[in-house]
Amino acid sequence: MRNPLLIVLSGCSGGGKSTILDALRNKGFPTIDEPGRRIVRHEMKQGGKSLPWDDPEAFARAAIDLAIEDHEAARAQGGVVFFDRSLIDAASFLRVVTGEESTSLIERYPYARSVFLTPPWQEIYVTDAERKHGFDDAIAEYERLVRDYSALGYEPIILPKTGVRERVDFILDALEA
């Protein structure tokens, strides 16, 4: 097994993370889809209530559990794995909802120190059945995540507002450097 390099794409909701992840997947890289989106899809399909707009605490705790499962699976796989969001994103949301700190938990599940963040980008932002919050909420989320990742010793690297191919090249070039 190769040593794992767990790369996080985080940042603003609607900033293009999933599209970038799809492009990385198409290049042959292993990827992990966003825990929150997976939970929302499951809960909506099953008629559950662990949704960020119905029960934000239950949603955050489910996202933490799923992010830990994803982290453990990626570590076992080894090599480079790209994540759409991480345990840190889920723990940050839980702190907003409950005030609960998860620092010791976060420290047990580290990622690569460089974290790629999609900045707020009004021109591509859309809401949908799984993303109901507005652009102002997405900006606040982005600012919180930049602070939280930095406070935990991660190096936020802000992605340029360019095309998908250019953003993927930017990430891969930064990882080679």
UniProtKB/TrEMBL annotation:
Domain NadR/Ttd14 AAA: 7-167
InterPro entries: NadR/Ttd14_AAA_dom, P-loop_NTPase
Entry-linked Pfam families: AAA_28
Domain of life the protein comes from: Bacteria
Protein name as catalogued: ATPase
Lineage start: Bacteria, Pseudomonadati, Pseudomonadota, Alphaproteobacteria, Hyphomicrobiales
